[in-house]
Amino acid sequence: MWTGFPLFPEQASTIARGVDALYYFLTIVSGFFSILIFLFILYFAVRYRRRPTNLGPVQVEGHLGIELVWSVIPLALTLVMFGWGAALFIRNSRPPQNAQDVYVVGQQWMWKIQHQEGRREINELHVPVGQPVKLTMASQDVIHSFFIPAFRVKQDVVPGRYTTMWFEATKAGEYHLFCAEYCGTQHSGMIGRVVVMEPDDFQRWLGGSAAPTGGVEPPAPSEPGGTTSLPAAPAPSAAATPAAPAVSVSSPKQPASPSAPTPKLDVNAINTINAVSAGQQLFAQRGCAGCHTPGAPYPQLAGKFGTMVPLEGGGSALFNEDYIRESLIAPNAKISAGARPIMPTYVGRMTEEEILQIILYIRSLKPPEGQGL
Amino acid sequence: MSPASVRQNYLNIKFGAASWLLTKDHKRIAILYLISITLFFFLGGFFAVLIRLELVTPPGDLVQAETYNKLFTMHGVIMIFFFLIPSVPAVLGNFLIPMMIGARDLAFPKLNLLSWYIFTIGGLFTLTAVVNGGVDTGWTFYTPYSSTYANSHVILTAVGIFITGFSSILTGLNFIVTVHQMRAPGLTWTRLPLFVWANYATSLIMVLGTPVIAITVVLVGVERLFKVGIFDPALGGDPLLFQHLFWFYSHPAVYIMILPSMGVISEVVTCFARKRIFGYSFVAAASLAIAVIGFLVWGHHMFVSGQSPYAGMVFSFLSFLVAIPSAVKVFNWTATLYRGYVSYDAPMLYAFGFIGLFTMGGLTGLFLASLAVDVHVHDTYFVIAHFHYIMVGGAVMGYLGGIHFWWPKMTGRLYPEGWARFAALVVFIGFNLTFFPQFILGYMGMPRRYHAYPEEFQVLNVMSSAGASILAVGYLIPMIYLVWSLRYGRIADSNPWHATGLEWQTPSPPPTDNFEDTPVVSEEAYAYPSRDREVHVV
Amino acid sequence: MSERAAALAHQFDDLGQQHQAASLGMWVFLATEIMFFGGLFAGYAVYRSAYSRAFAESSHHLDIILGGVNTAVLLCSSLTMALAVRSAQLNRRRAIVLFLIATMVLGAVFLGVKFVEYRHKYEERLIPGPGFHLEAPQAQHAQLFFSFYFVMTGMHALHMVIGVPMLGVMGWLAFRGRFSRHYYSPVEMAGLYWHFVDIVWVFLFPMLYLIDRAG
Q1: What is the CATH number of the domain that holds C154?
Q2: Which end of chain C, N or C, is surrounded by fewer C-beta atoms within 10 Å?
Q3: How high does pLDDT run on average in chain C?
């Protein structure tokens, strides 16, 4: 994208223009004051330099009026800058209601992206034009940061909790994705691209029928401990394209057969898994289903996602990704009303990806017919 | 008049290593610091040279990734803790503050010497880390990378910083007590030179802020050694707690690094324009305001960290506020030139450079204080450009200006003026070439701490590296002529610049006890005559 | 009196200035100590509010008898320290020495009790690190509590380990007749330091030992 001498990245999101506008304002004000100071210094230094015609200094101790003027005017300008920046920031911190959820796990030194509808990517993020996308992100190890310069967005990805950000792409194309928080040896290699597609192309891609998107072979990281069993299941949407041959297709109810992607194949093309059914597998295998089954005297999960749940000891909590994750890591921190503190913790026994898959599964559960929440 | 070389002064009163290593004279201690920090400056600069060399080409082909990460970490650690923080206070402050207030020494001379030993020991720990493979966490030591994942000499470096922090604390303590208790008769607070005000404000930050970084590195060390989860979420800790604790000190630390240099500028501009400072009380108050408000803005390093947006707004607002006193100072210095009698000696050239470059650096701070823009430029080269404008374009130029200004006082010799002006120009040009392109690189999206980068960033990186080579030359030239001047420079008298200030009322170099009799002060600071009241102006 | 002249350091003009400087210096130093411990207190407060139950339960593993005894011991030692300063003001050389010795003894008792407590924790396997073992649903958060317990009380104990010999030096100087009612500021400064260390403990004890102990 060499267009003459580049000064700005492309504007490819709805907020990029607003951020750039504020940036122009800041640049103009800064340029103005810088040049002003430079010129005054130059002028005074030359006009009042030591020479025979300069008969000596005339002492001027100060002037209250001037001090006030050059305190108040900058103060007013900075307040404008503050207000403008804060307004943009607050607006950008709240994703619209219709934002599509995409889940991101950052780990040394790769980005793993999970679309709700099934597709998984590594170091690439495909999104449609004109559709707000909300990223919910977790780190498997150290702090990373998800940075898309063309969208003017960035958010640290912090271990131990979820952070979120959102954007709406406005222009099809490919854009840089960088990790922007130093995370170790290959920090500058933890990069990728964001591919913005027209909505129809994106739907086709999501269904798995698009040609392999040429995802770069990821560097061989050491996967920390967790063996994620990811059974491949038919993609939920109608497209009949089979998953790549190396992965066995099984129905969700059967136990998973661990699949290892063969090195030569495009990793992104074969990673079409149904995250929800992967979550269901985990739910069964890791013992969750032992207690959390319909009718059992333990907290019911179906239909709860997105609602407020009353807690033991008063108060309530929003049953969202954070709540589910916390329930897995520190189960007795926020116990739902009426429950006992007996749930075991899964800290260290579940990767961030697995947690996300379980969340997606729980989210998909509908309350049984005829029963209230 | 007996030649300076024969007259007894603090340098020739006693010779031998013991007389220096066991000295209690604040002036000798200042020289000890001068030597130490100069060594560290060139070590940190050497790492910078390697960084800029690597960045000439997009792929990481000069050094390995791990080495590169160690280079920028060590560059930051050394430059911040072992050069910038001590520079003006420990060298110029130590040398001048007692003299500027008419005292024989600081309040606690033995503590002063202890400060230097603590600094040196801390430095040795860190140097040990360097030669044994270095540390690769970034100078910011974010957890859990530093506490759990890094495989480098984190603890050794952390111990070095912990120890050196006490050097800072004790120096600040010494300055505060000295300024409160030991001013000469007639020297009220409102007559103090602004250099003293600036260092006093700095000392407040040093004593209140440094203990927090000390305890923070202790906790990181504990976590690393015992694998407990103070900051590691896998063990129940909170990585953001580290960031809050770290930045609570490290933001005020940047004011430690700039305020003393601002004090130098006040002295230099008044002398070389032969003017009283415009708005003395405003400049003095601004130093204190910067120190106080500076403690309230640390969260602006954490806007995208996961901190609440409302906290972000509070920190953003306060960060804009802290810019105002800095702006007031710049305006007052500029106004001081009005109707002055301006000369272009090297210290004044450095002062001009400081005012311009600090203005640019400070204004770019507004970009970073602005929440929406910071989201984009946080952790990019924009930030690097911003702080180098302030730290190098500002603080280092102020330091060099001060070294030149008081060189005759400290050594009894004049430096060669022609070479000094030339070097100041080279530094100014080299500096801008190095760091201005980095603003553009940052907005383009080039992240910090990147060993390799996409092709489209290469042109600006090459420009920056070319500038760095010029800047390096600019720093080497003074090294050469300043050392040369010790032997061959023209002998200086007590007040070659005809400046006001008590330090110029004693011989150059001064005797050990500074003054024969305690001076009595009856004038305001910078009492330069006005032309309508005096016939001859030198 | 040569005694007085000998005590005046050369950078000061008179003993009054010297005394004021020493006093201000010690107060500034104590301010730095407040910030130092303050970082620990802040971290502790964050985790205490996040993991209140785990912290309360962990607190109950601490021995409040020993902790209470230590509190009483330290408060008494502050009394003896204040009496030592008073004795200096009243020119009572023997009294200064005896009270300083009493303060040192009480300080040593404190450290001894602390050592016993630490050993108990070691035996109960509550020292954070690989050997930590606690049967509880939130053992991780309990380990956090104990990490702070050991760092905070450890830092405090370190200050006492420095303070006790310092009092010994003061006692020796007092024995040699260095102090008089005209010059006793080192004793006073040592007293300020000692009282500060005492106050830190007065905060640490309820914070660490007395969580949820009512009823």
Answers
A1: 1.20.120.80
A2: C
A3: 92
